[in-house]
Design a protein that fits this description.
Radius of gyration: 11 Å
Strand order of the largest sheet: 1-2-3-4
Distance between the termini: 21 Å
Mean pLDDT: 88
Largest sheet: 4 strands, antiparallel
Structural class: mainly beta
Helix content: under 10%
Bound molecules: zinc ion
Low-confidence stretches: none
Shape: globular
Number of strands: 4
């Protein structure tokens, strides 16, 4: 895992340390999320309360529409991140 993104494995934003994220579109096992604190966006794959394969994605477009859920939620919450 990219060291810079390592905090995401624990559900923490690597940029601001926040733990709350807006949940975005799913793609297979992964989904896009946006940090509720600093608006950085990442693609993450939840795995039993952990995050694996985190990737930084560009902030492109508004966080709205049917693919973004009301939130925010914790990435480590298995009910929010099935
Ligand atoms: Zn953040």
């Amino acid at each position: 895992m990219n060291d810079e993104l390592a905090p995401l494995a624990r559900g923490q934003c690597p940029d601001c340390g926040g733990i709350w994220f807006h949940l975005g579109p799913r793609g297979g096992a992964s989904r896009n999320v946006e940090c509720a604190g600093c608006a950085s966006r990442f693609n993450v794959t939840p795995w039993y309360g952990r995050v694996i394969f985190p990737q930084r994605i560009p902030r492109f477009g508004e966080r709205e529409g049917p693919h973004w859920e009301e939130g925010p939620a914790k990435l480590t919450d298995r009910r929010a991140m099935p």
